[in-house]
Amino acid sequence: MTSAKRSSPAAATKTNFDAIIIGAGFSGMYMLHSLRDKLDLNATVFEAGDGVGGTWYWNRYPGARCDSDSYVYCYTFDKNLLQEWNWSERYPEQDEILRYLEHCAERFDLKPDIQFGKRVVEATFDDQTQLWTVRTDKGDVATARFVITAVGALSTANIPQFKGFNSFKGKCYHTSQWPHDGVDFTAKRVGVIGTGATAVQAIPEIAQQAKHLTVFQRTPAFCVPARNGNVDPEVTKARKADYDGIRQRIKDSFFGFELNFMPKSVLETTPEEREQEFDRMWDTGGFSFWLANYQDMFFSKEANDVIADYLKRKIRSTVNDPVVAGKLTPTNYPYGTKRQPLDTNYFETFNKKNVELVDANTDGAIEEITPNGIRAGSKEYPLDIIVVATGFDALTGPVKQLGIKGRGGRVLAEEWAEGPQTYLGVAVAGYPNLFMITGPQSPSVLSNMPVSIEQHVEWISECIAHMRRSKLAAIEATSQAQEAWGAHVAEVVNATLMTGANSWYMGANIEGKVRRFLPYLGPEGVGGYRRKCAEVAEKGYEGFVFTAHDQTARPIAA
Ligand SMILES: Cc1cc2nc3c(=O)[nH]c(=O)nc-3n(C[C@H](O)[C@H](O)[C@H](O)COP(=O)(O)OP(=O)(O)OC[C@H]3O[C@@H](n4cnc5c(N)ncnc54)[C@H](O)[C@@H]3O)c2cc1C
Predict the structure, then answer these.
(1) Which long-range CB contacts under 8 A does 243-252 form with residues at least 24 apart?
(2) Which of 50, 55, 173 to mutate to test the pocket of ligand 1 (most atoms within 8 A of CB)?
(3) Which amino acid residue places its CA nearest to atom 3 of ligand 1?
(4) How much distance in Å is there from the Cα of 150 to the middle of ligand 1?
(5) 525-538 and 449-469 are packed helices; what angle lies between their axes, rounded to 10 degrees?
(6) Within 146-217, where are the H helices?
(7) Of ligand 1's atoms, which has the minimum distance to the CA of residue 55?
């Protein structure tokens, strides 16, 4: 923790930096702390929102909460911070997570170096000076040796372009652009578009308030119960005493949790034996069913079907109307290949009299938004409020929007038209000194993200420290290393069932987006990926080339 509070005038008055960080969520905040307080660099953050928190600043819809267990959904780099913060629930609500991030911003005195309300619209690399020039929508122009994107994987809203969208006379909200003073659903006819992880959280909450709720479903979700609740103070105490161990275990794990697959094929078990295991995971709640199931779940369709069958039976035994239960039951993709929604009374909600399901396959897809509601399957559903829970243009969307121009004026958004091309998901050939935190082709959204964020921040910081020690001006991934990484990412995922779903992991939720598996599902998970990144560094940053400082280059200043 920094000893004295910074009284420096707004960073806005400076225009030349060692590093410009874009985004002030978990990633950007730690990146700033790391570069500024550990390396003593001159760094600034541009953040589009008016406060810190990223995801937790924007996503304020009813029911918004994390679904990583709170004791690991936090920073672990600071032992004192781990000891002083207490989470109230297993999965705290949005406002509690935002309070935590606000606390971190205060604790590490970050705000003086964050420029709020400024969206980066362009970042251009100059081949001569080897510096980046970054522009914001507020007219700022700043230069820096390094640009670090901390823009999040899920921060660009996906707003489907339904015919007639602007004609709707009622109110319409995307879940990630939720009004800060909330939305009152009392006595209202509400339509929710989407049934992914966000909608699964929001629907039961909205149904409690609204006069009538119509849910427009394109693809049904496999849900497992969250089993949220207050954290027992004794459990918190024990975890605090063991945080060194927890930190090590989540860093070495497959997905950044204290969860590991069962080293067994489900097909080798008896029906009684596996039913017992399924019941145990179901009762435990959370991600166990998804990430600590039998190890062949993601590899064998036959194994996957056995596991999916359990969840389908749960839907049928929860939903009273067999026709509605049928519509809510996934049929056309393997279990686990879409983001696992955790639910609290999701399926039960469809037993309520004021809740109606409109399924695109059986009732008809949305045709248009009308002044009075939504028309689907030739029927108009009258509504006062539409909630658009259609998620995000994941992973590539936020990076492509940055207007990044690299060496020789090459345009990143154009080069990624056919899918992302990166080395380790952290760098891009042709874009020197540009780093991405949890970028595409890194474990990112396939992990408990703070674990992956800390790993990237620490790797990038060490790389910059190495460059300063060695008086190097620029680092750039080679195109050979990039191609090999892209091939590896594809090869690994093609051996699994993950490509078999129209998921946002595949870019399938965005019209016109190329279908390409976007994150990295490493054969040894986040632990293996961490080791790979460390090995690259140990081998003198294998797969990268450096440019030494010449007289014209501005040194990386302390
Ligand atoms: C509803 C929801 C629940 C989630 N729950 C979990 C969970 O339980 N576990 C988990 O691991 N992950 C979860 N995630 C993923 C979550 O995004 C990450 O855990 C984490 O918050 C990401 O932090 P970040 O700083 O990388 O990105 P973000 O929190 O997305 O922050 C990025 C910031 O960059 C800013 N930004 C973007 N573009 C620009 C620009 N051009 N100029 C300036 N600023 C810009 C944005 O305004 C934003 O504030 C959830 C995501 C959502 C949407």
Answers:
(1) 243/76, 243/79, 243/82, 243/83, 246/71, 246/72, 246/76, 247/76, 250/72, 250/76, 250/448, 250/451, 251/451, 251/455, 251/526, 251/527, 251/530, 252/527, 252/530
(2) 55
(3) 66
(4) 9
(5) 0
(6) 197-209
(7) 29
pLDDT higher than threshold 60 for residue 28: yes
Calpha distance 543→545 (Å, rounded): 7
Which residues are within 8 A (CB) of 231 and not within 5 positions of it... i.e. 6 or more apart? 70, 71, 87, 88, 89, 90
SS3 label, residue 529: helix
* Residue nearest (by alpha carbon) to ligand 1 atom 27: 152
Please check whether residue 447 is in contact with residue 287, taking contact to mean a CB–CB distance below 8 angstroms: no
- Ligand 1 pocket test: which of 59, 87, 155, 457 has the largest number of ligand atoms within 8 Å of its C-beta? 155
pLDDT digits (tens, 9 = 90+) for 291-320: 999 999 999 999 999 999 999 999 999 999
**Distance in Å, CA 114 to ligand 1 centroid:** 16
Show the tokens assigned to 174.
């995307």
Residues flanking ligand 1, CB < 6 Å: 22-28, 46-49, 54-55, 57, 59, 64, 66-68, 73, 119-120, 150-152, 154-155, 198, 398, 401-402, 437-438, 448-449, 453
- How far apart are the two ends of the chain, measured CA to CA in Å? 18
Query: Measured between alpha carbons, how far is 449 from 163 in angstroms, rounded to an integer?
Result: 36
Length of the chain: 558
Backbone angles phi, psi at 414, to 5 degrees: -75, -40
pLDDT at 350 over 50: yes
The band of 554, judged by pLDDT with boundaries at 50, 70 and 90, is confident
Q: From atom 4 of ligand 1, which residue's Cα is the shortest distance away?
A: 66
Residue with tokens 């672990």: 76
**What CA dihedral angle connects 70, 72, 77 and 81, to 10 degrees?**
30
For residue range 442-468, what is the model confidence (pLDDT) as tens digits? Answer: 999 999 999 999 999 999 999 999 999
- Our mutation pick for probing the ligand 1 site, out of 90, 154, 526, counting the most ligand atoms within 8 A of Cβ, is 154
DSSP code for 176:
G
Say how far apart CA 102 and CA 98 lie, in whole Å.
6
Numbers of helices and strands, H then E, in the chain: 17, 20
Ligand 1 centroid distance, CA of 153 (Å)? 6
